[in-house]
Each structure stands twice: as C-alpha cells, then as structure tokens.
Amino acid sequence: MSDKNYSFFGAVEKSFDKAAKFTKWEKGILEQIKACNAVYQMRFPIKRDDGSIEVIEAYRVQHSQHKTPCKGGIRFAAEVNQDEVMALASLMTYKCAIVNVPFGGGKGGIKVNPRKYSAYELEKITRRYTAELIKKNFIGPGTDVPAPDYGSGEREMAWIVDTYTAMHPGEIDAAGCVTGKPVSQGGVRGRREATGLGVFFGVREVCNMPDVMQKLGMTVGVEGKKIVVQGLGNVGYHTAKFFQDAGAKIIALAEYEGSVTNSAGLDVDEVFNHRKSTGSILNFPGATNLAKNTDALELECDILIPAALENVIDGDNAPRVKAKLIGEAANGPLTPEADEVFAQKGIVVIPDMYLNAGGVTVSYFEWLKNLSHVRYGRMEKRFNENLNAQILGQIEGLTGKKVADRDREYIVHGADEVDLVYSGLEETMIGATHEIMNEWKNNPAIPDMRTAAYVVAINKVATTYAELGIFP
After folding, report:
1. Tell me: the pLDDT tens digits for 51-94?
2. Is 119 a residue whose pLDDT tops 50?
3. How far apart are CA 373 and CA 421, in angstroms?
4. How far apart are CA 411 and CA 295, in angstroms?
5. How is the chain split into domains, by residue range?
6. Which class in CATH covers the domain with range 36-185?
7. What are phi and psi of 337, to 5 degrees?
C-alpha cells in the first residue's frame, strides 16, 4: 500500500531498535540477534504444461540458529522478494522466543502466483524447491523445518515430506522435516485452525484484563464486541469463526475483491460459502458492499483484525481507523508510522509477532509428535475415561443423585489429540500475553505492546547466547 521504497525488513529492524533501548544487552549482541544468519536465493527451471520452460525464483532464510532447528513457513506469492522473506524469518525468531517454542526463526518463499499454475505444475515446483533445500542442507528435522504460509497448505507439505523421505531413506525422524502436513502423513489434529485459534485466545486474554479494557472504554470479555476482519483465508476465517462462537458480532469482512458490512452481524460460514459459490465476497444477501476492500479497516468497531497481507495500515490511513483494539493476525499489517499514530491515540495494538504464533506453537506440537512417533492422547485417553467414570460413579453412589447425560459425557471424556493441542495452545497464548503485559506495566517508558513484546523476545534470545558462552 505504501511507496515502493518501503522495506519490511527495515520496519522490523526499526521496531527492534526501538525495543533494544529498554534492554541491558551490549550493542554487539543486539547486532547479532538482528542479523539474518543465512540467506539462500535460488533459481531453477520447470516445464509448464504447455511445454514451455519457466525459471522460478525462490528463497529460504535462516535468521537465527540460537536454537535449532530453524522454523518458518513457505510463502507462495507473486510478490515474494528477499526483503520480505528476511523480515518474516526474523519475526519467526522473536515469535518463537515469546511463546517459548525452542526454535530459531526461518522463512521460505517461492515467487509464483499459485492461482496461475496447475496442481501438477505446483507439485513440480514444490518438489524441486525441496530438492534444492536438501542440496544445501536447508531442510531437516534437526536443521530447518518449513510449514505452510500464504498460498501453501497441507498438499504442498505432503509433497515436501515425500520428496525429503525419498532422498533420506531410513531416516527414522524424516516426518519431522516439515509441519502442517495432512494427519495421514504425520500431521497433528488442530493444526489447520491453530493460527486463528491462537489469535482468538490472545485477543480474548487482553479483553479479560479489566485495567486495559477500562483505559479503552470497553467492557471486559469478547461477548457482544463488534469486530471487523480483513482477510477470509485460513487465518481470517478461523479467527472470525472463533469470535462468532464466543458471542462477538462480526460486522464486516474484507477480501481482495472488496468488503461487506452489516451492523447487525454477519454469519461467517454463510459469507464464506457465498464467496465459494460466486467467487466473490460482494453482494452477500443482507449486507452492504463497500467501495474498496480497505474501507472495512476504517469502520466504527471495537476490534479490528487485519488477517491478510503486510503493510495494509500505514501513516496515511491509520488516522482514519476507529477501532479501539487492533489484533494483528497477519504478519506486519501495520507500518511503524501507523504504530506511532495508534500509540498517540491510545489504541492498543496486539502485535503479530506473538498473536499469530498459534501456527508455530501447534507446529512445535506436530514436530514433537513426529519425533516421539505416537499420537497425543493414545496412551492415557482410555485410562482417564475409566478413572473419571469411576470417580463419578462413587460420587453418584454417595449422594444418591444422578448427573445429567450431557454433563456426564463432558466429565468422563478423556482428552483426544485435538483437545490436548487446543489446551496447549491456550496455555501458551495466555502465558505469553501476561509476560508481555507485565513487561509493559513494569516499564512505563515502553510506548506500546509491540515494543514490550520485542523486549521480551530480545531478552530471551540474548540470554540463550550469553548462556551458551558465545559471547564470553
């Protein structure tokens, strides 16, 4: 949205420098944390379905190896460039540190618009990209573990794990070379909705803080809150859905072709299905079309969730944003200029670098599952159900009262894999929210929540370096 000179990596560095002033670490350590350790830029040819040859441009960046493996998604988009991939890799380092996931940051990108390629062409591109990563040791369960990102999903991850396994016969942990796989290929249940659910848990936790809500002139909790979501992809859809299920009102949804609004609330599934059948979010029955997709960002609402691409709110349109709370579900949707505007207006921005960490948190659970070679809940589910039924039976016998069937089902139920994944994610997001908020409260000079999040991340990464004795 901004001028062509905008550097996403520069914006991340700017936010880093702003936070570094509130830490005790010397300049050299901070420089090491900030720098990208390795940038792999590649070109390879593929044969298109019409017989023509096309040279594909692709990247993999490993930002930090203070903990291994490196971790980060692979983006399939026509806009992919080195600056963007470096920025996203560095955000992954800070994101993992904040939510206590023991990975270094990485990121990949393939410069293609996936809509313009057949499934067969995309498979060739993905498998060749994987082979290039293998050649340079830029993928592996202990070195670098990719995942889905914008434009890629379970299908592409299945191609990656298949290519990796074929080239590493007998490697027992090969399934851990990539996450976000289909469950049949070693994926974990709950991964698909993980980022959206993490966004919901993070925003909900901030909304449950009476002091923060009082400052914003809002009531505690998410129920009844008016919410605008930009982006109806995997993250936007699931975020909107979890908010709707919790009793919030989704008053507008935006996609790249436009946006629709209804002050009484939209049904997320109905809008999603309307877009699926008509190819557009526009002309949804009972909703008003807005002239531009970005108009939705400027609507009167309680919470704004940008869940599409980076750099959609800048110094230009930030003054027109009316939300009291902004939850960054996308990576880098606000420029540093927008941050300044919101800090002055007293609008709280919950930063991307931890708010959308649900994906990497559940990816971590998937990676652990692949290394342990056993599904979560398999060992203890039945034991817990039998134990709970026994306890309930004893209580019913002693009191002479029967528990209602629905309550019985809930009490007796032993945790499935998806229950454990949701529970682990909820614990992670709540813990991270309080860590950041405490940092902010304990240092009144910190201007906003993003800076507080960076301070938390810098302290954790620098402590690791210091304890490793890398800087004697």
Report:
1. 999 999 999 999 998 898 999 999 999 999 999 999 999 999 99
2. yes
3. 16
4. 46
5. 36-185, 194-355
6. alpha beta
7. -65, -40
In terms of CATH, what superfamily is 194-355?
NAD(P)-binding Rossmann-like Domain (3.40.50.720)
Secondary structure element (H or E) that encloses residue 381, with its range: helix 381-399
Strand-by-strand arrangement of the 303-306 sheet: 288-290, 258-261, 249-255, 226-230, 303-306, 325-327, 348-350
Listed residue (465, 375, 360, 419) closest to 100, CA to CA: 360
Catalytic residues: 107
**What predicted TM-score, i.e. pTM, was given to this entire model?**
0.91
Fold agreement between 36-185 and 194-355: yes
Cβ-count burial of 389 within 10 angstroms (0-12 exposed, 13-18 middle, 19+ buried)?
middle
Half-sphere exposure of 422 (CA within 13 A, CB side): 10
Comparing CA positions, the residue from 239, 252, 209, 246 lying closest to residue 224 is: 246
d(CA 352, CA 332): 7
What is 148-191 written as a DSSP string? E-TT--HHHHHHHHHHHHHHSTT-TTGGGG-SS--GGGT--TT-
What does the pLDDT average to over 341-364? 92
Q: In angstroms, rounded to a whole number, what is the distance separating the alpha carbons of residues 88 and 129?
A: 19
Q: Would you state the structure tokens that stand for residue 324, as one six-digit string?
A: 């009291």
Nearest to 238 by CA among 181, 276, 188, 190: 190
| Contact in structure between 127 and 155 (CB atoms under 8 Å) | no
Structure token pair of residue 76: 């399939």
CA distances from 318 to 233, 260, 306, 323, 341 (A): 23, 20, 13, 10, 7
CA distance 97 to 461: 7
Taking the CA atoms of 211, 217, 223 and 227 in sequence, report the sign of the dihedral they define.
negative
Full DSSP string of 413-428: PPP-HHHHHHHHHHHH
Closest CA to 464 of 97, 162, 4: 97
How far apart, in whole angstroms, are the C-alpha atoms of residue 331 and residue 325? 17
> What is the separation, in whole angstroms, between the first and last Cα of the chain?
45
- Look at residue 287 and give its three-state secondary structure: coil
